[in-house]
Amino acid sequence: MAQPTTVVTPAYPCVEIEFAVGAFRSAAILAYVDTGFDGYLVIPATQTSLLGQPQFFAPWELGDGSVVQAQEYRGDILVAGLGVSIPARITLLGEEYLVGRGVVDRLRMTFDHGQRLLLEA
To answer: Could you give the number of structural domains in the chain?
Structure first.
């Protein structure tokens, strides 16, 4: 049996991904892994111009308890080095790239002593 491919991410605690919505495909980006986030991928709200009109809106509760309506898209996330494509909801919100449990739960992730992140499909 072949050994699974293990990828060491380039920056801890981030994962290198690309995402696609319709005909748009992003360049490689680093997204923080947030194991307390139940969604798939949050990208900065400034990306609206690249993705066009949202496919739908959804309410999101923020850390301070407030609720906002966020633009959302259906797309795919490609995890660099693994060749894994994950169907995902992509949410425009805030200023950072965040990968949540919708992605994390489909991979084996090892947080190695706060130094590096190891990924396997």
So the answer is: 1
